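> call design_seq(struct)
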């Protein structure tokens, strides 16, 4: 590429001149390419790898120099000879003659420098490239990355870092390349080369650690290897980027929408600039943290954030914190985590204005909302720019009317009976005996006091989505939310209120569209409807059941990737007790899509991930109990049921809703804290348990005893308690004391630490699921084929790798169509014809010569029985393991031929027999030309099926050791097939011909056969087989055993060599030299 001219004092140091003229010199770097350059070449090659990017050189360059000057100017460099030669030829054709006109050397130098800079400016303008000091170097690195590892243009480099790779006890200094789909390492030291390629989707563990010898190490683990990298200039940046890329890969394995969502990293939309691509990933990560912190919709993107202060009227203070601005929200959180947070939807904003600055209040900004609240921010660094951004977003925000909870909807009207438990009474107050009546009155008094406390809080801190959220808010939540405020506050704390307000009518439309439609999800919903809180009166009638059906069905249609999962019915039924249908629907959306991500998909991945996180937390916080629980296998059993239903299925209802209160306010950390508290409270009993059954009984009795003495609800039988044994009950445990204890003992657990743990566990869980998928697929088809389990597993790895490669780099079909983890095991990975060609050429014994691709296409269409242009692993294996001759025959039968015969059209038989005679003499060229001409339809009316069969045989044998014998055998078999066909045709047409004499036609040349066959005729597989069996050479060829293991090994080695389509799951480190 052309570069801005830079002066070079020593033109000959470490460079070899290859071309020269009076003004320009083309040079190659010593040690590059053939020849090596001796010791100097080795040293140069080592330096080019070890030095950082600012010191590294491209292998080719062009220098400019005037005849009388000692100073050289570098004007172009290139990573390949082709690139630098194009620049050299352009100089010779366009500049060389022009320069001879100038008389002054300074004018020549000025002209050349100006011309080169003009070329660069024009290129940047035409390609919309912004000036960036890093762009040229990054382009060099990208080109080198693709060349070293055989990557296509679609595989874009994100960043690269200098580091050391540890192979045993020996470090190898080189470069770590992080691309969208791969982690790669390259080193070249003193003539020895090392390469490593690992696909992000194959990483099982990624962690940053420290040892005595190596203070900072990144460890990358796959199923078969561990790789250590150290000596980074900025290990935190490297590790963070690696985490982001690995997380994207896991999302793609988990969800077929992952490939669509991650097209924003598609390099077609990004310049060749590492800064741009890295910033894009950083922006993603920041937006995710922003959404999680303020419970915002999943499509909200952070625009920016700035330090500021917020005036809080409730304590008359300016609180230091950060303001966050996004497309639809302005948010604030204090530096001191629990002091204050604030969410202001732009739909609620009425006025944004700059107030007068003063020494006390510099750069203030006032924001007013529809509910007459005013928020005063100050100490803003760039207030004018911030106001402009907020104004721009306000203009884009469509004015929407806030949906009040009292919407008149036909769908919601039936829900009024089930939205509040207080409307369901089992016993009236008048029927209660005096002591019970007094107790109930006391409880109602307590409930009234709670309501008053919340009303006072709303007066002081504001009400609704723009409320100040402080430590006092948390205290009120821990004391329990009043029954008649629960639905409102759940909507507020979960963020569901925002999605409901911005999607008016969405739920009603979903209900209408889903009515009367049936699928697997609706069948499962119907089966579980009457199992959802059957002990609660609200769900003992059709009105409550109908509302639950509508909410679950609407969500199944909204999110078909999840559809319906067991446990959703229990959670949704509780939501419906405190919220209207539409509110319950949006609460369910918040749960499934934001607060409990991936919990309710078909493989409950999110719950399994959090199960692993819980194990890590148990090891850290209750170490004396951890080993015992692991031995009993209890942690995995309890955590799934506890987490999936938020303790609703294992605690008395009136106690479990208090847990849900805290969960909506503080998120998943509440569930972890509470689970640890339950273990800690039973530590002595659990240590004495001898088996998992005894441990589960201990925990079951404890949870059954958790009571809510403040509850005004009528007594509801608890299903879990009905299933426990008749042993002595556990003493009562107050739910409020249990929750407060969990905060006191385990409240130090931070949400960001949980997310870090989730990432680590997600890698493990998803790779375990992938391994399970492989085992299930192999177990399903092992009885249908002659391949061993090990061979099938190796073939599955190659098949899956080809599938993923096509998803990464494109193919003839959409990746979301062929990658769907929700499908049955056998259908999750499918390949199209282009990927099949690659595997065919590597694994099948007939793949050689120019006819390989057409044969692969025939084979693919034979295997693709349902005609969807994709084949799964079973179809692939069944084809691979089929008898050779029968497979060859089937490939050449026209689709839809019920008789399974190869059909021949009209033939000038004497011409073909003459050709066979030439064939037997070994005139192969004649045969090849003849076949080619018939495929083009230039000579005879000869059906393409038979011609293609002949051409396939000819191509198959072209490189075999017994080629001549096989060739003669093919001619003999072809002759026999023609004779069989003619005899069959004659026997069927003699009556029509009237038994007339054979021959005598206008085309008769004295041959002992009829001159033509006037009707189509065919041969069966049995005839084909009988003909082949007459030739021993062909019999030996088709009966020759295929060395499957050797072909698999060869396929893996070919992939390691760096072909354009890389697909090994984990390349071994390769050393040469």
């Amino acid at each position: 590429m052309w570069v801005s001219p830079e002066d070079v004092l020593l033109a000959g140091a470490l460079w070899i001149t290859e071309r020269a003229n009076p003004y320009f010199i083309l040079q190659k770097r010593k040690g590059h390419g053939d020849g090596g350059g001796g010791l100097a070449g080795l040293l140069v090659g080592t330096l080019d790898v070890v030095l950082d990017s600012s010191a590294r050189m491209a292998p080719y360059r062009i220098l400019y120099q005037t005849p009388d000057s000692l100073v050289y100017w570098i004007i172009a460099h290139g990573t390949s000879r082709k690139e630098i030669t194009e620049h050299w030829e352009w100089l010779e054709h366009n500049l060389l003659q022009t320069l001879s006109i100038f008389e002054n050397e300074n004018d020549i130098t000025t002209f050349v420098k100006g011309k080169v800079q003009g070329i660069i400016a024009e290129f940047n303008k035409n390609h919309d490239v912004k000036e960036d000091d890093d762009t040229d170097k990054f382009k060099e690195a990208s080109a080198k990355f693709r060349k070293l590892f055989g990557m296509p243009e679609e595989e874009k480099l994100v960043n690269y870092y200098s580091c050391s790779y540890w192979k045993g006890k020996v470090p190898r200094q080189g470069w770590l390349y992080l691309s969208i789909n791969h982690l790669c390492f390259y080193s070249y030291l003193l003539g020895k080369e090392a390469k490593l390629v690992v696909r992000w989707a194959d990483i099982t563990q990624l962690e940053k650690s420290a040892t005595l010898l190596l203070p900072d190490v990144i460890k990358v683990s796959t199923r078969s290897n561990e790789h250590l990298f150290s000596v980074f200039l900025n290990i935190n940046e490297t590790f963070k980027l690696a985490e982001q890329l690995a997380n994207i890969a896991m999302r793609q394995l988990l969800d077929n929408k992952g490939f669509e969502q991650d097209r924003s990293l598609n390099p077609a939309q990004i310049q060749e600039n590492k800064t741009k691509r890295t910033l894009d990933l950083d922006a993603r990560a920041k937006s995710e943290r922003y959404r999680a912190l303020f419970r915002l919709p999943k499509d909200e993107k952070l625009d920016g954030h700035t330090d500021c202060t917020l005036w809080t009227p409730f304590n008359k203070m300016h609180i230091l914190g950060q303001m966050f601005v996004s497309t639809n929200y302005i948010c604030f959180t204090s530096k001191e985590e629990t002091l204050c947070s604030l969410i202001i939807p732009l739909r609620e904003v009425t006025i944004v204005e700059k107030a007068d600055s003063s020494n006390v209040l510099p750069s203030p900004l006032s924001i007013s909302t529809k509910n007459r609240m005013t928020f005063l921010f100050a100490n803003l660094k760039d207030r004018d720019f911030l106001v402009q951004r907020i104004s721009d977003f306000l203009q884009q925000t469509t004015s929407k009317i806030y949906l009040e909870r009292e919407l008149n909807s036909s769908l919601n009207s039936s829900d009024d009976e089930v939205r509040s438990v207080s409307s369901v009474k089992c016993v009236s107050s008048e029927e209660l005996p005096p002591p019970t009546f007094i107790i109930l009155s006391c409880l109602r008094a307590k409930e009234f006091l709670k309501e008053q406390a919340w009303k006072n809080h709303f007066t002081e801190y504001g009400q609704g989505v723009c409320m100040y959220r402080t430590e006092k808010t948390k205290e009120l939540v821990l004391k329990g939310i009043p029954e008649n405020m629960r639905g409102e506050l759940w909507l507020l704390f979960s963020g569901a209120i925002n999605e409901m307000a911005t999607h008016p009518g969405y739920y009603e439309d979903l209900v209408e569209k889903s009515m009367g439609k049936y699928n697997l999800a609706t069948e499962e919903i119907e089966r579980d409807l009457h199992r959802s809180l059957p002990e609660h009166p609200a769900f003992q009638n059709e009105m409550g059941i109908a509302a639950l059906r509508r909410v679950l069905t609407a969500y199944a249609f909204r999110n078909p990737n999840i559809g319906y999962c067991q446990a959703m019915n229990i959670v949704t039924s509780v939501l419906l007790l405190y919220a209207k249908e539409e509110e319950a629907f949006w609460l369910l959306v918040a749960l499934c899509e934001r607060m409990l991500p991936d919990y309710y998909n078909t493989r409950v991945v999110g719950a399994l991930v959090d199960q692993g996180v819980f194990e890590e937390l148990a090891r850290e916080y209750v170490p004396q109990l951890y080993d015992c629980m692991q031995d009993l296998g209890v942690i995995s059993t309890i955590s799934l049921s506890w987490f999936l239903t938020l303790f609703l299925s294992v605690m008395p209802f009136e106690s479990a809703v208090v847990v849900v209160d805290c969960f909506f306010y503080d998120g998943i950390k509440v569930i972890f804290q509470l689970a640890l508290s339950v273990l800690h409270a039973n530590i002595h009993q659990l240590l004495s348990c001898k088996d998992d059954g005894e441990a589960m009984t201990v925990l079951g009795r404890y949870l059954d005893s958790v009571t809510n003495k403040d509850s005004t609800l009528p007594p509801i039988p608890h299903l879990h308690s009905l299933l426990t044994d008749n042993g002595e009950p556990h003493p009562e445990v107050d739910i409020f004391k249990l929750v407060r204890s969990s905060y006191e003992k385990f409240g130090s657990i931070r949400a960001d630490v949980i997310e870090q743990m989730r990432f680590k566990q997600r890698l493990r869980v998803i790779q375990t699921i992938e391994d399970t998928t492989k085992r299930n697929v192999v177990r399903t088809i092992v009885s249908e084929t002659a391949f061993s389990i090990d061979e099938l597993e190796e073939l599955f790895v190659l098949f899956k790798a080809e599938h993923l490669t096509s998803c990464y780099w494109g193919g003839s079909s959409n990746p979301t169509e062929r990658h769907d983890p929700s499908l049955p095991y056998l259908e999750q990975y499918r390949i199209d014809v282009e990927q099949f060609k690659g595997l065919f050429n590597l694994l099948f014994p007939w793949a050689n010569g120019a006819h390989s691709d057409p044969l692969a296409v025939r084979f693919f269409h034979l295997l693709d029985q349902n005609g969807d242009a994709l084949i799964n692993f079973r179809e692939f294996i069944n084809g691979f393991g089929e008898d050779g001759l029968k497979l060859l025959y089937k490939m050449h039968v026209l689709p839809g031929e019920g008789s399974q015969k190869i059909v021949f059209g009209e033939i000038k038989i004497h011409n073909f027999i003459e050709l066979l005679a030439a064939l037997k003499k070994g005139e192969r060229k004649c045969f090849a030309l003849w076949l080619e001409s018939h495929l083009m339809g230039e000579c005879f009316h000869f059906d393409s099926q038979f011609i293609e069969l002949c051409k396939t045989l000819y191509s198959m044998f072209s490189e075999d050791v017994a080629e001549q014998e096989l060739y003669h055998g093919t001619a003999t078999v072809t002759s026999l097939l023609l004779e069989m066909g003619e005899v069959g045709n004659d026997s069927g047409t003699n009556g029509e011909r009237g038994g007339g004499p054979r021959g005598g036609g206008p085309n008769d040349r004295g041959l002992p056969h009829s001159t033509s066959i006037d009707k189509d005729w065919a041969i069966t597989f049995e005839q084909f087989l009988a003909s082949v069996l007459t030739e021993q050479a062909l019999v030996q060829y088709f009966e020759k055993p295929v060395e499957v293991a050797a072909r698999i090994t060869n396929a893996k080695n070919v992939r390691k060599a760096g072909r354009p389509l890389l697909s090994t799951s984990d390349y071994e480190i390769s050393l040469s030299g």
